[in-house]
């Protein structure tokens, strides 16, 4: 007689476990939507503060699943929206993995503990994307890793991870969350909205030429770098536009379009920072200054590339643009190690990585070789060091 109720009790226990598991997955999905949206908004508003053109970055992200279709000389709305959607899908998936797949260990944690685990998780997940999932299996797309330094993805993942403590509220399906969790998540939500409001205000003023003031320790060096890199980029854009029209290799044409987009965006940021920081128009570089810049091409060299026969254009462009990029990497490396404004130095680090990465992309880097190159490029001016070792000098 005592044996009969047991199946019913077991069934009830199974239903309770099943309901908890279902609630956990639903909460994880809700958190994924919140955290990915928060990171998208923060990334969009904060990008220009550290010298990133958000539209170009979204286009680069879109190229992970969409390949060359996404790339153009001016980021299209379709590419930008594709990049945002892909980013949100990735962030959503990481949240689902953290609280769904790993929910046995994470679903019942307190908010502060979740935050302490979520931040290292952001470092790990962004590293997995940058080192493995994007350049290797399953996407086999080296462009993202070679064009964007790892810390950009880490910052994006970090902005998503700071919203993970809200799971402590979402996991209670019927409003039965403990008062301590309610108070913490209310405070956390208020703080997140305040961050968006502050970043939005800074971005609004920044877009109208009122960035936070210059905060470096060597004004002359920063001014010289901005002026020189703006002129250097302008020549690079001119050369890349020729390749976007004339390159025989369709992939090289698309890569040239990306060069146009990224350097145009960077020049817009340089011009806005100059106006905000120094309250004057940026002086043009003299002929002597241009001739002294590493990698800057003469008018004869530019004309040789532009008028090269079709069957010789691709090879000559790759050689010439590689030399031009080595010069930009050298200039950026110098300012990265300077005493200048931190924002300018962070931007220079990204430019150094981007220019070196594009040299590798022009030469067909892919797979594990692309990952190895990207890691080395993150650490230093690899292209000029290697060239100096070979021939005793750098461009």
Automatic annotation (TrEMBL):
Q: What is this protein called?
A: DUF305 domain-containing protein
Q: Provide the alphabetized UniProt keywords.
A: Membrane, Transmembrane, Transmembrane helix
Q: Where is the DUF305 domain?
A: 222-364
Which lineage? Bacteria, Pseudomonadati, Pseudomonadota, Alphaproteobacteria, Hyphomicrobiales
List all membrane-crossing ranges.
Answer: 25-47, 77-102, 114-137, 149-167, 187-206
């Amino acid at each position: 007689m005592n044996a009969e109720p047991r199946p019913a009790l077991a069934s009830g226990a199974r239903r309770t476990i099943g309901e908890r598991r279902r609630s956990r997955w639903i909460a994880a999905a809700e958190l994924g939507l919140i955290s990915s949206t928060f990171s998208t908004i923060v990334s969009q508003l904060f990008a220009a503060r550290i010298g990133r053109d958000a539209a170009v970055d979204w286009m680069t992200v879109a190229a992970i699943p969409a390949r060359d279709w996404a790339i153009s000389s001016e980021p299209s709305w379709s590419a930008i929206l594709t990049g945002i959607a892909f980013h949100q899908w990735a962030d959503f998936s990481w949240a689902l993995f953290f609280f769904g797949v790993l929910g046995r260990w994470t679903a019942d944690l307190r908010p502060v503990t979740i935050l302490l685990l979520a931040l290292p998780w952001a470092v790990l997940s962004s590293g997995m994307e940058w080192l493995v999932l994007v350049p290797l299996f399953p996407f086999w797309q080296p462009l993202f890793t070679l064009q964007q330094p790892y810390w950009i993805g880490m910052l994006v993942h970090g902005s998503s991870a700071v919203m993970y403590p809200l799971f402590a509220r979402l996991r209670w399906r019927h409003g039965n969350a403990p008062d301590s969790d309610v108070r913490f998540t209310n405070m956390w939500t208020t703080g997140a909205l305040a961050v968006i409001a502050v970043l939005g205000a800074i971005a609004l003023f920044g877009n109208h030429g009122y960035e936070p003031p210059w905060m470096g320790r060597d004004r002359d060096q920063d001014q010289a770098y901005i002026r020189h890199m703006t002129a250097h980029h302008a020549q690079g854009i001119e050369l890349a536009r020729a390749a976007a029209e004339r390159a025989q290799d369709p992939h090289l044409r698309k890569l040239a379009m990306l060069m146009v987009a990224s350097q145009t965006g960077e020049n817009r940021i340089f011009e806005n920072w100059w106006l905000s920081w120094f309250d004057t128009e940026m002086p043009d570089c003299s002929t002597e200054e241009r001739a002294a810049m590493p990698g800057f091409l003469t008018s004869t060299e530019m004309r040789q590339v532009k008028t090269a026969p079709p069957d010789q254009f691709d090879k000559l462009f790759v050689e010439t643009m590689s030399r031009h990029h080595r010069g930009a990497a050298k200039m950026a490396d110098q300012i990265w190690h300077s005493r200048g404004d931190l924002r300018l130095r962070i931007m220079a680090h990204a430019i150094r990585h981007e220019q070196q990465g594009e040299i590798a992309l022009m030469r067909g880097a892919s797979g594990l070789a692309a990952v190895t190159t990207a890691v080395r490029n993150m650490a230093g001016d690899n292209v000029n060091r290697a060239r100096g070792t070979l021939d005793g000098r750098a461009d």
